Amino acid sequence: MTPRRGLFSAPLLAALATPGAVVFAFFFLLPLVFITGDAFVGHGAAFARVLGSPAFWDGVRGSVLLALSTGMLSLGVGFMVALHLSRLGQSARTALSFVIALPLTFSGMIVAYGFILAYGRAGFVTQLLGALGLEPAALAGFLFSPYGLAFASSYYLIPRVVMLLLPVLVNFDDRQMAAAASLGARPWRALLDILLPQVMPSAAAAFCLVLAVVFGAYGTALALVGTQVQILPLQLYSLVSDTGADFPAAAALALLLTATCSGIMALGEWIAARHDPAH
To answer: CA-to-CA distance for 212 and 206, rounded, in angstroms?
Structure first.
């Protein structure tokens, strides 16, 4: 059988990829080169200052806890939402997927201010719950805490999980579950032994994506908790703000954050590729 020839020639493909390559070079590679140069001023002394600071390790612990809690919440809720959507018809699934994906268009700052307007001390949800007897200060205190930060961050991370898991669940053959049920398996047992192993690679990739986003994001955290919570992105913000003066240390911390987030994303891609049937 004669192999099909590509629809586009190599020169045309290269021309189509050129704009993306230019944007990637100017807005990622070039800044990365300059940041790397600043970080290694003084033969890498900035890395020693960053790694030797107790505040850095407090930020590491805070970032890891925030990422893990937000990741587990987003993955759990996102899986249940994607599972429900996979059972719907095509029209209903498309309409609900459009609504669920809307938070992906908002920046972290907009999400934070939206949560403040809804769940802050004078928020309309807080006022409604206050009319039912709940103390408004308690709900507002929760929002402006690390737990509230995880709650608010999940708002735009759950859709990412749903969009990644939905194709896998839609293409899942439900006859496997029916066959297990006919053999006497309980629904939860069939879910654990049949569905979850097939979804796990995509779930791991989604979890790593959520971890990387939370680990490096600062907009929502800055608006909700300021610098009261010790996480690495807010430490970086402090180093590059008006009060900061140690730009080599800021560059070193930026490289450490970039390497960590890239490593998490690479781990997720490796897990997904390792379990891909095409490989």
So the answer is: 10
d(CA 67, CA 252): 21
Location of structure tokens 């929002």:
143
pLDDT digit string, tens, across residues 10-60: 788 778 888 889 999 998 899 999 999 989 988 889 999 999 989 899 999
User: Helices H, strands E: what count in the chain?
Assistant: 15, 0
Q: What is the pTM of this model?
A: 0.84
Distance from C-alpha of 174 to C-alpha of 172, rounded to nearest angstrom: 6
**What pLDDT digit, counting tens, does each position of 57-92 carry?**
999 999 999 999 999 999 999 999 998 998 888 899
Place of tokens 């949560």: 115
pLDDT one-digit tens code per residue, 209-249? 999 999 988 888 888 887 778 899 988 888 887 666 778 99
Cα-to-chain-centroid distance, residue 157? 5
Helices 146-170 & 90-101 angle (0-180, nearest 10): 150
Q: Identify the DSSP state of 218.
A: -
d(CA 53, CA 48): 8
Tell me which residue has tokens 């999940």. Answer: 154
- What's the CA gap between 194 and 271, in Å, rounded? 19
